[in-house]
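Practice problem 4.
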């Protein structure tokens, strides 16, 4: 897991954990090949699933734009949207687009709005497990739902064994970890279970975990740390959080079209088929979690930046918000995602994203 970066600025190195203060500085704002720089500072908060992507983007942007300071706190989607609505941040990151009553609140926060959802990061939600000498674990949606509903409690349960012939599954209790905080990753994961295993997963999907049993952990970083440090465990995190883990692997998911590995490429196949359901520059997407397409990994998420198209107050630096999100949506910004295990936005959707970002008012 990559939570620490060293940013080389004009005069010194800065160690950072998601919050990256500019190194060096002085002088006026400048342009470069990849970023049309703005100056000043902004605060943002939200999705931990996109935390590693934000770290990379902020690192790159501030290396080019030393008069800018961007502080992104990976507090979870729910808390991020709450902070945005409360005018504590300049934009929010969320794995579940803001809509309905929450969108009305965001519009009001934006001095009458509109607030818009801008998809900038795609990714696979990996079902991660820690089992000694068990590679390539295969799970179906029904079995996965039963594990997280605490109706399958042993790793050698016949339903798991039937999917994994030849694998030595232990006679051990499954230690199940889920998010304890309000989380867009949980929202997408439970939407998947609701869509694909409705007879088993009878709990309402949402950002807050409501199924019985298991152990809660705050943030994707704590879920992956819990699984990596606990034998015979299982959890769910955005795929990039597997980077650097010692004991954790990702299960293959079979939606009915054969087992599919969680990778950037297989997640991209599912995300590319998502339909835009928002209007205007609000690019809310609908994902088909039930896909059986060959090579399509079905448990995916798209993280949005929720921003004021207009109405962001001057003290929250709308010019820097627009400049930074423009960089994130650029070829340079999107190309960074693949090296971190994410899925870049491409094609027609990327063109719409760039139009949406260009619509952001700077004053």
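Answer key:
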């Amino acid at each position: 897991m990559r939570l620490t970066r060293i940013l080389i600025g004009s005069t010194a190195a800065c160690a950072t954990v998601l919050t990256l203060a500019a190194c060096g500085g002085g002088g006026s704002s400048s342009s470069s090949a990849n970023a049309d720089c703005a100056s000043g500072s902004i605060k943002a908060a939200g999705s931990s699933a996109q935390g590693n992507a934000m770290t990379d983007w902020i690192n790159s942007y501030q290396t080019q734009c030393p008069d800018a300071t961007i502080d992104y706190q990976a507090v979870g989607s729910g808390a991020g949207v709450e902070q945005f609505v409360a005018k504590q941040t300049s934009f929010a990151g969320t794995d579940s687009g803001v809509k309905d009553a929450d969108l009305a609140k965001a519009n009001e926060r934006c001095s009458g709005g509109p607030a818009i959802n801008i998809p900038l990061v795609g990714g696979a939600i990996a079902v991660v497990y820690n089992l000694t000498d068990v590679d390539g674990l295969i799970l179906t949606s029904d079995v996965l739902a039963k594990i997280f509903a605490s109706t399958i409690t042993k790793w050698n349960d016949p339903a798991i064994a039937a999917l994994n012939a030849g694998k030595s599954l232990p006679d051990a209790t499954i230690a199940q970890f889920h998010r304890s905080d309000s989380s867009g990753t949980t929202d997408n994961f439970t939407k998947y279970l609701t869509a694909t295993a409705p007879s088993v997963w009878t709990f309402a999907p949402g950002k807050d975990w409501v199924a019985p049993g298991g152990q809660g952990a705050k943030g994707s970083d704590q879920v992956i740390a819990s699984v990596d440090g606990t034998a015979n465990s299982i959890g769910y995190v955005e795929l990039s959080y597997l980077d650097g883990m010692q004991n954790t692997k990702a299960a293959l998911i079979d939606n009915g079209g054969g087992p599919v590995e969680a990778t950037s490429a297989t997640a991209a196949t599912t995300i590319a088929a998502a339909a835009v359901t928002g209007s205007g520059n609000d690019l809310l997407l609908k994902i088909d979690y039930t896909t059986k397409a060959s090579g399509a990994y079905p448990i995916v998420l798209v993280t949005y930046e929720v921003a004021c198209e207009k109405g962001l107050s001057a003290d929250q630096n709308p010019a820097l918000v627009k400049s930074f999100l423009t960089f994130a949506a650029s070829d340079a910004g999107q190309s960074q995602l693949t090296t971190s295990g994410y899925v870049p936005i491409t094609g027609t959707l990327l063109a719409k994203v760039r139009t949406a970002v260009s619509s952001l008012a700077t004053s």
